[in-house]
Write a structure and sequence with these properties.
239 residues, alpha+beta, Ubiquitin-like (UB roll), SH3 type barrels, five-stranded mixed β-sheet, five-stranded antiparallel β-sheet, cytoplasm, alpha-tubulin binding, microtubule plus-end binding
Length: 239
């Protein structure tokens, strides 16, 4: 089973989430999974695949599997609500109008955008509550990262904070693929996603499929023997 980690967001900025999907999912099945995440009905979803701010294409063939597209770890899928019930004719069908697009930098500089309005009025992710929550998360990452050193043996915790995999810490710090602190792990088995590089940027060296990146709070360092040392008495006698 091949799993890919993707960032999911929407046009109204109500959703920004990191999720894991099986590449064997069809785009139709993916839409059903995205509906409770984004709040956008299956039938009105338009899914675009991005690497950073660069559009890679649309996931528009519902019969194709996700893995049939050039999808890689830490790419972003942007889900748009097309609201087809409101498109009555060629005068109201916005898909017939040439799009006016701005770069991220150009958008941030404008003062007449929804983002600028929210920022001025401290709404949504710009509210004091959201800022406090973000600060608490970053503080948790920083505190956890202080306890982690390159070369440490560790176990990686799942979303339910139970141990999932064992490995060795190879990187601790900020990355270009996503803000904040990350820990690069070389797993004992080929259960990772990369060889220590993401989107052309190398952070550490390891064999292909042995590397992965997790948040510091998902790393538990300690005296964890390597997987190939966890042998039974019978196996030791045969060596």
């Amino acid at each position: 089973m091949s799993i890919v980690t993707l960032f999911v967001d929407t046009s109204d900025e109500k959703v920004s989430s990191e999720r894991r999907f099986d590449k064997s999912l069809t785009i139709s099945q993916l839409k059903y999974k995205l509906e409770p995440i984004t709040g956008i009905p299956y039938s009105t979803q338009k899914i675009d695949l991005y690497q950073g701010n660069n559009l890679q294409g649309s996931l528009d063939d519902e019969s194709k599997m996700l893995g049939a597209y050039p999808v890689e770890d830490y790419m972003r899928i942007h889900v748009t609500d097309t609201n087809p019930h409101r498109v009555k004719n060629q005068y109201t069908d916005v898909s017939l109008v040439e799009k006016f697009e701005l770069t991220e930098d150009e958008y941030e500089k404008r003062t007449d955008t929804v983002r600028a309005f929210k920022e001025r009025n401290k709404l949504g992710r710009f509210s004091a509550e959201a800022a406090a929550k973000e600060e608490a998360i970053e503080a948790a990452y920083e505190n956890a990262a202080k306890q982690i050193k390159i070369g440490d043996r560790c176990e990686i915790l799942g979303d339910d904070y139970t141990a999932q995999r064992l490995g060795t810490v190879r990187f601790v710090g900020e990355t270009k693929f996503q803000p904040g602190l990350w820990v690069g792990i070389q797993y004992d088995e080929p259960l990772g996603k990369n060889d220590g590089s993401v989107q052309g940027e190398r952070y550490f060296e390891c064999p292909p499929k042995y590397g992965g990146f997790v948040r510091p709070t998902k790393v538990n360092v300690g005296d964890f023997p390597e997987e190939d040392l966890l042998l039974t008495d019978d196996e030791l006698e045969e060596m």
